[in-house]
Specification:
mainly beta, homodimer
């Protein structure tokens, strides 16, 4: 891991959408970057909150049991543990995430786009 | 805590330098914003890493036992636990921090500018 990482520069390197990459760690949390476009998959992380920071573009976090949350660049929103959610971006959106090192990409849902933590760390 | 917080807008509200304000929480970590100018105080957080994200301006993290780290807007750097450091900004700099909810402002050092966690939460 580099000593200094520029979040937008790290996001820019990503080839694929919906494929987060770990760029740092603080205590028991990974910092990740990702590119998003379109709609992801409904999922929840039973025991873990998930922080979204929008770097570029606009993002909506869709919820089943509460109002959707609209985010623009520089906005932070924390998806609470245990709550069904689905990120959606009409245009390509770049984000940073802060989440526990054990957090599974799509929580308790399996999706063809699910990435393992090893893949997010740059492993196989 | 608001559902959506814009980091720069939260930083802009701050009246004082070196007085972090909690604006969010993800798992066992607080997200804080602060304005910095000048030099702070040498300190360490024995058991806790501290993430710096520069929102505006430029920041140097000075170290005693390694090279200083220079940061610009969008850059992230994690000060490792147990390592003496001192933030320094020639011009006013706005930052976000991610650190464990128990992290003391100036670690094991006491300084007139030390802010309690209650103060950072907006309490007394």
């Amino acid at each position: 891991m580099e000593t200094v990482v520029n979040l937008e520069a790290e996001a820019e390197k990503l080839q694929e959408t919906w494929s987060p990459r770990v760029v740092g760690r603080v205590n028991d949390q990974y910092v990740k970057v990702a590119k998003l476009q379109g709609e992801f998959t409904w999922h929840r992380h039973e025991d873990e909150d998930e922080l979204f920071l929008v770097l570029r573009g606009a993002l909506t976090i869709r919820y089943r049991d509460r109002d959707d949350v609209a985010l623009s660049a520089g906005d932070v929103h924390v998806v609470p543990r245990g709550v069904l959610h689905n990120p959606m971006a009409v245009e390509e959106c770049w984000i940073a995430l802060v989440e526990t090192v054990t957090t599974q990409h799509t929580g308790d849902t399996v999706d063809p786009r699910t990435r393992s933590i090893a893949e997010q760390l740059g492993g196989g």
